[in-house]
Amino acid sequence: MPPVSEQSSDADLLRAIAAGQTAALRLLHHRHAGWLRARLRRRCADPDVVDAAIQDTFVAVWKDAQRYEEERADAAAWLWTIAVRRLVSALRGPAHRWLSSLSGELPDVGTTPSAEELVLLGVEHGALGPALDRLSPELRHLIEATALDGLTVREAAKLLGIPEGTAKTRLMRARSRLRELLT
Amino acid sequence: MSEWHLDPELFEQYEQGVLNPSRVMAVEAHMSACATCRGRVPVDITWLTGNWSIVFDNIHAPQAGPVQRLLTRVGLPEHRFRLLTATPALRWSWLIATLSVVVLAVIAASLSAVGETGGASRLFLVLAPVLPVVAVSGAYGSGIDPMHEITGTTPSAGPALVLWRAISVIGAATALAGVAGLLLPGPGWYAAAWLLPALLLCTGTLALATAWSLQAAAAALGGLWLTGVSWVLGVRSEVFIPLVFGPIAQFVYLAAAAAAVAVLIRRRRHFDLGESR
Amino acid sequence: MTTVTVQGVSKHYGSLTALDGVDLEIGVGVTGLLGPNGAGKSTLLRCLATALGPDSGSIRVRGLDPAVPAQRTEVRRRIGYLPQNPGLYPNFTAYDLLDYVAVLKEVTDTRQRRAEVRRVLDEVELTDRAKTKVRKLSGGMRQRLGLAQALLGDPELLILDEPTVGLDPEQRMLFRALISRIGECRTVLLSTHQTEDVGALCERVVVMSGGRVVFEGSPRELAGVADGQVWLSESPPQGNTAYWRNADGLYRTVGQQPDGAEATRPSIEDGYLMLLGRAAIAEVVR
């Protein structure tokens, strides 16, 4: 295992972390904690909960870094899905801890949203933007939680505090409404 | 990947929450995809180091296990627990020695479990009380603890430290011998008969250590016990068990142990710390 | 300001005299204790570290007397000690070892102790090795870990016995930088038999020989002891004089002027050799 530096890629850092290098975890933390914090704060007003979610994220990465698969997900997206799940479980209180341990410590890389997909969605400058703005908040939140945050419908339901069935129907309604608005 | 990048102004608006929903989603989608923009997110360095130090502590500091949580509930502070658990970890050799003696006794007892006065059971009763004492004398000290010079010059060095370490080692050795006692054939009370003699030998050793070195005290009392018991075995073999482990004898052990504790408390300042001062 | 005062301290091991009436005053900054093997350096440091009681004489650390049991504990709260053979438990991780010593140094609050362990790991640049077992650390790292445990509790007085021994030149440089940084606001007393250590990091130097203090002053003053007594010549000097060849191929003599030799500026080592005389010269040349 070669020594890691500021220039190492995320994937290299994660491999070094799996080999037990604290220095690699520090570099990864310093590289990603900032934007994770900014993004998590949009979802939770309590800074302590956000900070704890970030800490939990990197402790989880330390324990389970070998589960990261470079071919299947981008490291940043993977970190984000861990972080947002940690936030969800913290927000729902200890009684809802099962949410984060639903499928082991870390989410499967398969469920992380692919960055390309999001760009293809065209939220940056396509017609989707205005369409999203016109969507009712409760429908938009579901699109956000599933497409952007990479949560499952079940987790999204927990995050938004609604029954899973309701979340499913709302998501379907949101998708057809978007199609309507785009045509 | 894309030509478009977040400018600081847009990011500031994002942080303040004044963007409309689709712009928020655009910023977030872009952040997921673009390492350059992630790197440009302004970070408070004090916050970053603070957050990292908690991650660091979490992955390095020993985590509280069930035993520690139980002991904390009964009022044992975390730092005492560290001290108690670090002590046996210092010297695995005595633990292995104790364990092998105990295992040998059990095996011997099982092999020759013919009568309740089986020789092996007797052997166990004779040896078990000495085990914790041997463990104490071999667990640390100037010649045994490699870090003795550092330990001996910390403010904790002194009678209290010797006692805490002794308690930790006696506890571990007693637990081991206790398990072995339960596995022994013979009347049930055999399993506990050695406990009071062991208590006497431990407290006696610690009391004597206020005058001599711990090792010398342990050797003297352990030797005294073994010689005395062997002598009784030689001359009064037929009444050996009732004589040495009967109710009267047990009461005498308890009284003597209490006396030893009294001496220990009175003379605690004279503990020999194995220091060369 | 004086941190340590030593007055008439003697220590005997049977018929062997390790310390013979030592008088010293040590203040803030880095003080080097220089002397050949058996000069009594370690014995003096062990007395100051409260590991050993002197036979006679008195020691005061910030006015406290380590001979009095109650004050001894107070002294121990103010010192950090790195013995010559620290004997760090090989099966402990760097973190666990420091955590354990921090408990012994009465940092009882868990959160405070974690912060303290993190601080000293950072100070000796071992943060990334916190999870490594002591036996897997290199010699230089182990020495830094030994220094880290001495730094726990932020002691006013650091006592380091031969801290640079067994280090390769690069590690030695790093270690010197570390010690001089630490010595900016603390009292550091270190023993060495390397004059380069003294020149590189000590503000004051104490030379010991045969259990006595034979010199006390700045490194420059130590070099000054040999003023006008160091000579360079192109051919080996005649007579019963100790000399050695330096890097330029010249013969360097300390003492009487050999024929045809020119005087040169003395180094710290020259001063040290002058002080200790032939016995020491023999040891160094060997």
From TrEMBL, chain A:
The keyword Protein transport does not apply. Residues 131-178 form the RNA polymerase sigma factor 70 region 4 type domain. The keyword Transcription applies. Residues 29-92 form the RNA polymerase sigma-70 region domain. Keywords: Sigma factor, Transcription, Transcription regulation. Belongs to the sigma-70 factor family. ECF subfamily. This is RNA polymerase sigma-70 factor (ECF subfamily). It comes from Actinoplanes campanulatus.
Automatic annotation (TrEMBL), chain B:
The keyword Cell wall biogenesis/degradation does not apply. The keyword Mitochondrion does not apply. Keywords: Membrane, Transcription, Transcription regulation, Transmembrane, Transmembrane helix. The chain crosses the membrane at residues 92-114, 120-141, 162-183, 189-209, 216-233, 239-265. InterPro entries: Anti_sigma_zinc_sf. This is Zinc-finger.
TrEMBL record, chain C:
The keyword Zinc does not apply. It comes from the Bacteria. Keywords: ATP-binding, Nucleotide-binding, Transport. PROSITE patterns: ABC_TRANSPORTER_1, ABC_TRANSPORTER_2. GO terms for molecular function: ATP binding; ATP hydrolysis activity. Residues 4-235 form the ABC transporter domain. Belongs to the ABC transporter superfamily. This is ABC-2 type transport system ATP-binding protein. It comes from Actinoplanes campanulatus. The lineage of its organism: Bacteria, Bacillati, Actinomycetota, Actinomycetes, Micromonosporales.
